[in-house]
Design goal:
By secondary structure, this protein is α/β, with parallel strands linked by helices. The protein has one domain (3-251): P-loop containing nucleotide triphosphate hydrolases (Rossmann fold). Helix content is 34%, strand content 28%. The strands form three sheets. The protein has a six-stranded mixed sheet with strand order 6-9-10-3-11-12, sandwiched between helices. The chain has a four-stranded antiparallel sheet with strand order 2-1-4-5, covered by helices on one side. A hairpin with a 2-residue loop joins strand 4 and strand 5. Helix 3 (97-112) packs parallel to helix 5 and helix 5 (152-166) runs parallel beside helix 6 (182-195). The protein is globular. It starts with a strand and ends in a 7-residue tail after the last helix.
């Protein structure tokens, strides 16, 4: 069983501390949700896990599959089985979705087995079409440049398609529901749920409980002021939906905005 373990994580951006001693553990087969108001460090956590160079880890450790990965580059972390679905996916003109996915998939396969010669084109095409069908994506998307001219919903589906093809052990979804209408949210969420199982753990970062109506977490965490302050089951997300974050601010002695 693969496990992502975050220990006493402190992270700064341009000298300003954002994460202030965060602790969390996610195992394959588990679905965790992190919720919290804007500016509390949720996306900072996601980017730090994948090794974004702008985020400086000043203290703490990130362990994945029994190894501290802080010294690893983003591509090394990805090949090891860690995945991040971006809140704002970038466009890559000139690189088709199919070519991008085949290159990434072969890189991941060779990391697991250096003797692997890569997936054949017929096998790749069959796999790609199956995953696109799962996400209700037009097969023509495979020939388009990655995210170039894509709608918000298409970009998010393309992110989940990458996850489906790469089969990571731990997937981090950074506000995947951002910018989606209810139909796109349902389709993307159903795709994530179909892919979740004993071989993959999921860490969902979101503001709203509505996403969790589709992606069912076993564990819900509230992040505030750079740390996780509350953990519980799905009812914790329902409480946030009903009461907002004022009770969190009050409990942890932070002023409630006027």
């Amino acid at each position: 069983m693969s496990e992502l373990i975050i220990k006493d994580l402190h992270v700064s951006i341009e000298g300003k501390e954002i994460l202030k001693g965060l602790n969390l553990a996610v195992k394959t087969g588990e679905v965790h949700a992190i919720m919290g108001p804007n500016g509390t460090g949720k996306s900072t956590l996601a980017y730090t896990l994948m090794g974004h160079p702008s985020y400086e880890v000043t203290q703490g450790e990130i362990w994945f599959k029994g190894e501290n990965i802080l010294t690893k580059s983003p591509d090394e972390r990805s090949r090891q089985g860690l995945f991040l679905a971006f809140q704002y996916p970038v466009s890559i003109p000139g690189v088709t979705v199919a070519n991008f996915l085949r290159t990434a998939l072969n890189s991941r396969r060779r990391a697991l087995n250096p003797a692997d010669k890569g997936i054949s084109i017929p096998e790749f095409r069959k796999m790609l079409l199956e995953k696109m069908d799962l996400l209700k994506m037009d097969s023509k998307v495979a020939g388009r440049y990655l995210n170039d001219g894509f709608s918000g919903g298409e970009k998010k589906r393309a992110e989940i398609l990458q996850m489906a093809m790469l089969k990571p052990e731990i997937a981090v979804l950074d506000e995947t529901d951002s910018g989606l209408d209810i139909d796109a949210l349902r389709i993307v969420s159903e795709g994530v749920t179909a892919l979740t199982g004993p071989d993959m753990g999921v860490l969902v970062i979101t503001h709203y409980q509505r996403l969790l109506n589709y992606i069912k977490p076993q564990y819900v965490h509230i992040m505030y002021n750079g740390i996780i302050v509350e953990s519980g089951g799905p009812t914790l997300a329902v409480k946030l939906e009903e009461q907002g974050y004022d009770w969190v601010r009050e409990k942890y002695q932070e002023p409630i905005p006027a």
